[in-house]
Amino acid sequence: MSKTEARLAELGITLPVPTAPVANYVPFVRSGNTVHISGQLSNDGSGRFKGTVGVDVSPEEATEAARVCGINLLAQMKAAAGGDLDNVVRVVKLGAFVQAGPDFYAIPQVVNGCSDLMVEVLGDAGRHARSAVGIYKIPLGFAVEIDAVIEVA
């Protein structure tokens, strides 16, 4: 078991099978040692992380939704890194989108759900630059979507 897989087990996290694209794109693109991972939705299979944050999704639920995006990103990272998360050298950047209600501004705090997970799992290699943006709609009605740029060995 790799070091990162052991850390996931320690945290009680089981990575899902990476999701297939829902439109005309690929899950990730590798160019040299840089991998761009397409946006991952707050989809854990339960449907509970759908809606507008600050309207029908609480900030706490949205933070958990961002963590789910992170888990889905880790599943894609593993696939992009040849099946071994220890080949992830660095999370370079996260781009986060939160379906935010008109009076909801705590978008950075929501996205911490994913950012904190990256550091929990990958240590210093999980520290990253990021954008956190509130938007009108996210595909399929999910509350949060996050994409990533990573460096692999």
Protein described:
With 153 residues, the chain is an alpha+beta fold. It has a single domain (3-152), classed as 60s Ribosomal Protein L30, Chain: A (2-Layer Sandwich), CATH 3.30.1330. The protein is 30% helix and 26% strand. The chain contains 3 helices and 5 strands. A 5-stranded mixed β-sheet has the order 1-2-5-3-4. It is globular and about 40 Å long.
Structural class: alpha+beta
The portion of residues assigned to helices is 25-40%
How is the biggest beta sheet arranged?
5 strands, mixed
Report the principal-axis shape: globular
Architecture, CATH level 2?
2-Layer Sandwich
CATH level 1 name: Alpha Beta
Mean pLDDT: 97
According to CATH, the homologous superfamily is: RutC-like
Lateral strand order in the biggest sheet:
1-2-5-3-4
Q: Whole-number radius of gyration?
A: 15 Å
**Uncertain regions spanning at least 5 consecutive residues:** none
Order of helices and strands: HEEHEHEE
What is the count of helical runs?
3
* Strand segment tally: 5
Number of domains: 1
* Annotated CATH topology: 60s Ribosomal Protein L30, Chain: A
**Cα distance spanning the termini:** 18 Å
% residues in beta strands: 25-35%
Protein name: RidA family protein
Domain Endoribonuclease L-PSP/chorismate mutase-like: 5-133
Pfam family, one: YjgF_endoribonc
Organism: Asticcacaulis aquaticus
